[in-house]
Amino acid sequence: MRAAPFGLCRFWLGLAMGLLLASDSGLVSAKRYLRCELAKKLLDPPYRFDRSLLSNWICLLEHESDLDTSRITSNPNGTRNYGLFQINSRFCQEGRRGGICNVKCEDLLEENLMEASVCAKRIHSSDGFQHWNGWQRHCRNTQNLPNLRVICGI
Ligand SMILES: *[C@@H]1O[C@H](CO)[C@@H](O)[C@H](O)[C@H]1NC(C)=O
Asked: Labelling 14: which of 29, 89, 114, 123 has CA 20 to 30 A away?
């Protein structure tokens, strides 16, 4: 009889651990990055963003998504913007691969930035940073760009 409450306790503990693990291993693993963490990540392989443009990208991402890969916003025209780079749904397709970048929109919400960064670089190479309102409003003036050398040591 003495073992019963102890067994019950272990049961609840096991259940709690199980739920914790389940919520942590969802299909899409999203992440809110810290500024320097993200800057270093984008600079390194496999992403390899151009060092000379990195402060523009970081400024853009801070104003577009607050460095949160799970961010989805709705536009007045009914389209949506997905993820860290707030990529518009004409570049992706909801539910399956498609759009200009041939990517699934939901995959742009992942902690892994491969699909999102390839698509963002593609947008940048055709439209430049002015494609993004967040960059136009807050980052166009180079005085507003973060000095990553000083702040992050990179
Ligand atoms: C809808 O609005 C977004 C954000 O302003 C824009 O990027 C996109 O091109 C627009 N799409 C259409 C079909 O007008």
From this structure: 29
In a domain, 98, yes or no: yes
Residue 94 placed within a domain: yes
Residue 110 belongs to domain spanning: 35-152
Q: State the chain's mean pLDDT as an integer.
A: 89
Beta carbon of 133 within 6 Å of any ligand 1 atom: no
CATH code at position 69:
1.10.530.10
* Residue 115 in this model has a pLDDT that exceeds 90: yes
Structure tokens at 149: 């050398």
Residue 26's Cβ-count burial label (10 Å; 0-12, 13-18, 19+) is exposed
Least confident of 6-15, 51-60, 104-113: 6-15
Is residue 56 situated within a structural domain?
Answer: yes
- How many angstroms separate the CA atoms of 87 and 119, rounded? 8
What proportions of the chain, in percent to the nearest 5, are helix, strand and coil? 55, 10, 40
- Cα of 55 vs centre of ligand 1, distance in Å, is 26
Q: Is 130 in the pocket of ligand 1 (CB under 6 A)?
A: no
Output the residue whose Cα is nearest ligand 1's atom 6: 88
pLDDT at 39: 98
